[in-house]
Amino acid sequence: MSANPIQIPEAFRGLFQPARYKAYYGGRGSAKSHSMAAAAIITGAESPLRFLCAREVQKSIKDSVKQLLDDKIEKLGYGHFYTSTRDEIRGLNGSKFLFAGLQDMSVDQIKSFEGVDRCWVEEAQTISERSIEVLVPTIREPGSELWFSWNPRHAKDPVDRLFRGEYPPEDAIIQKVNYDDNPFFPPELERERQYDKKAKPERYGHIWEGDYEPMAVGAIWTRLMFHEHRKSELPVQLTRILVAVDPAVSSLEGSNEHGIIVGGLGTDGRGYILEDGTCEGGPEKWSQRAVALFDKWQADGIVIEKNQGGDMCRHTLKTVRPGLPIIEVHATRGKHVRAEPIAAHYAFGRVSHVGTFEELETQMCQVTAAGFEGEGSPDRCDALVWLLTHLFPGMTHRTKPQFIAADGKSMHGQVEDADPFAMI
Q1: pLDDT at 336
Q2: Which segment of 137-141, 246-250, 257-261, 302-306 scores lowest on mean pLDDT?
Q3: pLDDT at 208 over 90
Q4: pLDDT at 400 (0 to 100)
Q5: From CA 217, how far away is CA 226, in angstroms rounded?
Q6: Of 140, 224, 227, 259, which is least packed with CB atoms within 10 Å of its CB?
Q7: Contact 336, 345 (CB under 8 A)
Q8: Rounded to an integer, what distance in angstroms lies between the CA atom of residue 372 and that of residue 282?
Q9: In what order do the strands lie in the sheet with 145-150?
Q10: What fold, for 218-412?
């Protein structure tokens, strides 16, 4: 039916496959909006569908994707099939495109869209928990689908918790797409990308790679540090593996998380972050998680901070696994001071994340030379700092590690202001 060739990147082929949820997230130039608009126009021409194009805030039709759809109709050669009015788009077969802002609608107004076959939520990083809770059960026609497209902003945004949290929905196509997934990426944008990589390294990962937005100005870690040295799989054998734990002070609801990070030292002398096992709950929960990760990775020890409830931590871990090799550390400097030499190793490409750890990386990008600018406590980041400090002892700044062997005897040691790169 289309008069012109249809160009949609291969990464978006899932838009033409049946699935309850279709979630596409990533950075600039990935063609998310253009591909979803094209897929909506094509599928609406093939079958009579009622499309709701929604976003959290839409003060006027100009804020919607209507103009993008109008442009796609003309570019794809569907001008004879669709009629566009001020507020709607209609097809000859009865297909209809409606546009709405969810934030200013009442629950009953949102529920009035229950006859919708497809719902596309654009700029989904801004959608509220309330909008998702009302919208999802409203779109319930047989075979109905919910489409989401967004550039990630924060791991705790509702859309990220829904699709990238611990329990993503079933029957879902969840795809990260970036500029390198777009074979039609224009040279004009490539020049902008190269400029941002040089001039805005702290923003580059968010803008172009779909990373979470850095929250702190002057952060000692940047998204680009993670991106440039990230590994999809472990490239070498490991000579040592540790599990580091930074328990929250309280296990009550709403308290901080218990940071649990697994990492190893490679035969190439580089550090590798293997898993983020951070969890919430009481001492039994975090201790069992830590021991389970110790077993999973066949680790050499578990690192804990002595002056943050160290006796309790050691006792809790020993209750789960008597004889567990525990490394106790005593901090004599502030968290951000301890973190700086670790960040320096990232800057020089001496640490790689094996996979993507969004919440950990977001927390790391909130640490500045003056402290932590995020909400709560940086438990994940603190655990990572302890882990890498003890994988590379030369990084340690006036800390006093105390090693608790399987027989319960202590082995004391101290490192005083060593060269942070001496052990590499």
Answers
A1: 64
A2: 246-250
A3: yes
A4: 41
A5: 17
A6: 140
A7: no
A8: 24
A9: 82-84, 89-91, 96-101, 50-55, 118-121, 145-150, 21-25, 172-176
A10: Nucleotidyltransferase; domain 5 (3.30.420)
CA dist list (Å): 403 to 170, 301, 409: 45, 9, 8
pLDDT higher than threshold 80 for residue 398: no
What is the spatial distance between Cα 136 and Cα 124, in angstroms, rounded to a whole number? 13
Quick one: pLDDT at residue 368?
85
Residue 257: half-sphere exposure toward Cβ, Cα within 13 Å: 18
Domain ranges for the chain: 10-181, 218-412
Q: Is residue 40 predicted with pLDDT exceeding 70?
A: yes
How far apart are the C-alpha atoms of 330 and 397, rounded to whole Å?
11
d(CA 84, CA 91): 9
Question: pLDDT by residue (tens digit) across 348-376?
Answer: 999 999 987 888 988 898 888 777 766 66
Query: Is pLDDT above 90 for 3?
Result: no
C-alpha–C-alpha distance, residues 36 and 175, integer Å: 13
Q: Which CATH number applies to 10-181?
A: 3.40.50.300
Tens digit of each residue's pLDDT (9 = 90 or more) over 228-279: 888 878 999 999 999 999 988 655 444 568 999 999 999 999 999 999 999 9
Q: What mean pLDDT is predicted for residues 395-423?
A: 39
Residue 417 has pLDDT above 70, yes or no: no
Structure confidence at residue 406 (pLDDT): 43
